[in-house]
Specification:
Length: about 350
């Protein structure tokens, strides 16, 4: 008989501070206001947490990337580089402003864009690069920023999967010109939906505001959403440490197993895990493993499909993409709530069993 793991994947967590915020915004009547004091409190809290001057909330992480591109001055027929393995919404955000996606490869041993491949993909038409820190891996953001600034290319950090993560003690989202956050239902900071952009550049912040205003704010975050995010931000670092401890336990259990990898761990990083990746060398095993784990009520998914197979009419691929192609074919991802669950050991036992027998 299967274990009941339903409580292991409950998200968001039941939390008295979140409930108190909801009750307060309801009793005050602020839930019916437009861009009120709760959004102001949230943007102030985000500015303090990330140590940046400006935060602006919006309706989703995908919209945040689109606003960031517009704030960077990207327009029709400009080129924007992104990893060939990335969230599909980033590709579509580039298309939404009539720019051209240009594909670069991943850093070996990770799920984030390679600095070398980015550099090789630059053309005279390149105006921006989207740097997604995916699946707990962290891009070589310092090298990317160095190259980008030499070439007058805007750096947009996508930290939708990793709010709170650090490298060399500095928060991700504070290296580039502007960063995008997501508050989607399953994200580490969850309001069911929503997002934000972060920047230290007054010009970026002003252009983001102008792009969003169409008689009113066209991409708002509600006061109810803002209210539930503030207490979550207070708990984020603590929960990220707990999730990382769960991943370290996974790493020890999976290390002896041939044919699978969780990627390389950067000793200077404090990662944040939204979906924990497992890369299979034998890609034919992925579907049977996913099917069996789901039959055991384990919440595991395929990774992203990637963009390497997309038509040349939609994007440009000036460099080879072997790491990204392997990632698209072989990646499975385990959902983050299990990492802080009391049932983690049982879940990991099922995972090891599946990797040994399927």
């Amino acid at each position: 008989m299967n274990e009941d793991f339903s409580s292991a994947f409950q998200w968001p967590l039941q939390d008295s501070e979140i409930l108190r915020s909801l009750e307060e915004v309801y009793q005050s009547g602020d839930w019916g206001s437009y861009d009120g004091r709760w959004n102001k409190r949230l943007t102030e809290a985000l500015s303090v947490f990330f140590g940046i001057q400006f935060a602006r909330t919006c309706s989703s992480g995908t919209v945040a990337v689109e606003i960031a591109l517009a704030a960077a001055g990207v327009g029709a027929n400009d080129e924007v580089i992104l990893a060939a393995y990335d969230f599909p919404g980033n590709f579509r955000s580039i298309e939404a402003i009539s720019a051209i996606p240009v594909l670069a490869d991943l850093k070996p041993g990770s799920w984030s864009i390679s600095a070398e491949s980015f550099s090789n993909a630059i053309s005279d038409s390149t105006r921006a690069v989207i740097v997604s820190h995916l699946h707990g891996s962290i891009a070589d953001i310092r090298s990317i920023c160095t190259v980008a600034r030499e070439r007058n290319i805007a750096v947009i950090e996508d930290i939708c999967q990793c709010p709170g993560a650090r490298i060399h003690g500095q928060r991700l989202g504070t290296f580039g010109d502007v960063a995008a956050l997501s508050f989607g239902g399953s994200k580490l900071l969850s309001a069911g939906r929503g997002g934000a952009i972060l920047t230290d550049d007054p010009a970026f912040h002003q252009r983001a505001r102008i792009y969003s205003e169409r008689g009113n704010n066209a991409h708002p975050l509600s006061e109810l959403q803002a209210a539930v995010l503030i207490p979550q931000l207070d708990q984020l670092d603590s929960l990220n440490r707990q999730r990382d401890q769960g991943v370290q336990k996974m790493e020890k259990l999976l290390a002896p197993l041939a044919g699978c990898s969780l990627g390389a761990r950067d000793p200077d990083a404090e990662p944040a895990f939204f979906k924990v990746p497992i890369l299979l060398q034998d890609t034919s095993r992925k579907q049977p493993i996913v099917n069996w784990l789901r039959s055991q009520q384990i919440l595991i998914d395929h990774g992203f499909r990637g963009f390497a197979g997309r038509s040349s009419r939609r994007c440009r691929s000036p460099v080879d993409l072997p790491v990204a192609i392997d990632a698209a074919r072989g990646t499975m991802v385990l959902h983050h709530p299990c990492l802080i669950s009391a049932q983690l050991d049982k879940i990991l036992a099922k995972l090891v069993d599946s990797l040994q027998t399927h």
